[in-house]
Amino acid sequence: LLNHHGEELTPFASNALTVSDAVDSLKGQTIVVKYGGNAMTSPELSKGFCDDVAALQKLGLRVVVVHGGGPQIGKMLEKVGVESRFEGGMRVSSPEVVEVAEMVLCGSVNKGISSGICSAGGKAIGLSGRDADILACTKLMDKNGLDLGNVGKVETVNTDFLENLLDTGITPVISPIGTGIGEEKDVAYNCNADVAAGRIAGELKASRVIFLTDIAGVLDKDMTLLKELSISDVENLIEDETITGGMIPKVTYATDAIQLGVGGAFITDGRVPHALLNEVLAGGSSGKGSGQGGTVISL
How far apart (Å, rounded) are the C-alpha atoms in residues 30 and 40? Predict the structure, then answer.
């Protein structure tokens, strides 16, 4: 690698320049991260994630974390003997199920993440979507007419409150339990964490939304990673059945966020150590990620 004078750069200098370009292009911008899957359940990957958030904060970036916790909810439901089932990929959420989900997500899971970021030298505060009406919801009506119980459709996001926290250098760590509206103010709603992350990113007009997943990214029919896609590419790939099954909702959350005004949506392999840092910084000012860690979707 050569600098603009034609002199050879050491790997360290080259990396430092790339990071410097990335940080400069993201100055004052917000990044929303959906945190879930292996990145959350493996102690090593979990520590790496908290280190990454703290590092991005120190570099002056504004970071919001939205987390899931499906496996942890499943374990607790089993432990307390509450039955639950899935319809169309969504957990049917009776009031009893939501009570357990809220206990798990807003309790141990949420506080584990916020305190992990603080231990890594960052500043974070753990919140539920019910706090300060961060996620105000109505009941989600399934398109096939299925009653999913208290599954929430996010109607509004309290962006003023989140911006105030970000302005003071704090990362909000949000669990996807929303609050009802009006007469339903005291109802708790279980929200899909991917949908909540995309919506929060859209309302904050974030420069990036990064979905940490347990997959390599979007693959073509030969199982080769598709590194960059536009919204129309995604639509064509769904139509020709390259993108199928559980991948369809993932790319849909990403394209929805782009249509709300987010700069780029990353479907990132969270099983890679320091995936967050790689995808935010390794692409320099291009904003296209490392090129190895997943798929970037943009307009």
Answer: 22
